[in-house]
Amino acid sequence: MFFPEEAFGELNVRGLAADPSCAITSASLDTRTLPPGSLFVALKGNQQDGHDFLAEAFRRGASGALVSQDFCSRNAARFTEPGSPYKNLIPVADPEAALVRLAAWRRRLFQNPVIGVTGSVGKTSTKEMLGYLLGQRSPGLTSSGNFNNQLGLPLNLMALDPSHAFCLAELGASKPGDIRFLTRILKPTHALLTQVSPSHLAGFGSLDAIYETKLELAEALPDGGAVVIPDFDPVLLEKTKRWKRRWVCVGETDRADYRISAVRSDNSFVSFTLAGRQTFRLPAAAAFFAQNAAMAAALADLLGFPLEEQPAVWEDFRLPAGRFERRTLANGLTVIYDGYNASPGSFKRSIEGFRKLETPGRKAVVFADMLELGPDEARFHRELGENLGAAGFDFLGAYGRLAAGALDAARVQKQAGEIRQFESAEDAGKFLAAYLKKGDALLVKASRGMRIEKVLKFLEEALQHQHAV
Q1: Domain 325-468 bears CATH identifier 3.90.190.20
Q2: CA nearest 143: which of 95, 185, 96, 181?
Q3: Helices 207-214 & 178-186 angle (0-180, nearest 10)
Q4: Which of 201, 327, 400, 413 could form a disulfide with 368 if both were Cys (CB 3.0 to 4.6 A apart)?
């Protein structure tokens, strides 16, 4: 929490319609979700101008607003009219740059641990796990959802308060330099790096560039700062030799500082033992979540929350939606919805997790294109098809130009059951409603841009129609 006068001083501006009694507790770009007490940031985009929603922001309880100087010059008279809803307007040349500056200021005032989480696969799930564990001992600030970019991170940091015991932020990247930009605002004291794999290659250009960008998080730490990493990636392990950091490996190999053992999955819960010191049990549908949870537990241990004191059973923990999420439809069909996003690395994990899923019936996979993979996109889809074909699933179906190539590669393996190309998500959903029966299981996965969730929408609608008839 802070007051408008503090923001005026940090930005060296003279506020309009000042009301020093208002406290600012957060920041928002969207009046539809703006919490009372927020600082509204009026950004001008290609489609809409946030200044058009300024009055609505104050009707919804905003305590102030970052606005452009030009807008203030044109509308100064209306801000002081009797009954005006406006207060604590902060005129700046660039509202986005001013937001970043205020967020960096809030961070400078914070003295407790600040943890950055990045990677290609599993970073949001791991961040949520770490936030869950740390929150068992003391309240802190954990970044909302996947607010992990040049706007999302500053918005989250605006809610930072000295009373928080920690600050935990996810950092995303789509091109080299993105993580470095974010760390200049976050200034992390600790870091966690999940699995690195091909993703957003259209922006990065190469897998090596992805490694280098993700390691910008480690670069930002002070000498001796702790970085938790997976133990199974030789490329990553080689690159860590560059900096004097405390590299802490987590995994199932002998090189792990925190070794994972006794991994078990019963389709609804995953259990594992970490470093021989504590056994954990968490609600998840695939054994691969043990790696994410173990990395979170290890970093919590490094932060002074011993493994032995961490909760053994995470009964009230919930994974973010769309991450190998298990659902049961009305007809008894089990659905694994993994549609938040897709990359070669995350798809490989999903295939293995689904292959090990225990089910009395058949197993079907419906997927669509993995996007933003650059010049090698056809190769990545061919390899995906080979993996799917070799897994021996009863049914493979897909829509999309690139997914068609994956199906061709799956056919060569001759180990899958029926293989079918669909024209659209609607075609896939309607076919599955007739094809799948009680006891069967379905994995649904694709990049977000392919709208794979529509497959489930049309599947459920068709099932409801069948039931009504």
Answers
A1: yes
A2: 185
A3: 10
A4: 400
Distance (Å, whole) CA 115 – CA 157: 12
pLDDT for 469 beyond 60: no
Are 355 and 431 in contact by the 8 Å Cβ rule? The answer is: no
Residue 101 burial (CB count, 10 A): 16
User: What tokens were used for 428?
Assistant: 């896939």
The pLDDT value given to residue 387: 97
Q: Are strands 167-170 and 114-118 parallel, antiparallel or unpaired?
A: parallel
For residue 212, pLDDT over 80 is answered with: yes
Superfamily of domain 110-309: Mur-like, catalytic domain (3.40.1190.10)
Q: What is the pLDDT of residues 105-126, one digit of tens each?
A: 999 999 999 999 999 999 999 9
Among the listed residues 197, 213, 307, 302, the one whose alpha carbon sits nearest the alpha carbon of residue 249 = 302
Please say if the pLDDT value at position 145 is more than 80: no
Give residue limits of the domains in the chain: 4-92, 110-309, 325-468
State how far the Cα of 74 lies from the Cα of 70, in Å rounded to an integer: 6
Q: pLDDT by residue (tens digit) across 63-82?
A: 999 999 999 888 887 887 88
Domains 4-92 and 325-468 in one fold: no
Residue 447 token pair: 């990049």
**CATH match for 4-92 among 3.40.30.10, 3.40.1390.10, 1.10.10.10, 2.130.10.10:** 3.40.1390.10
Distance separating alpha carbons of residues 39 and 27, to the nearest angstrom = 4
Instruction: List pLDDT tens digits, range 399-455.
Output: 999 999 999 999 998 888 999 999 999 999 999 999 999 999 999 999 999 999 999
- Structure-token match 């801000």, residue found: 79
CB atoms within 10 A of CB 469: 5
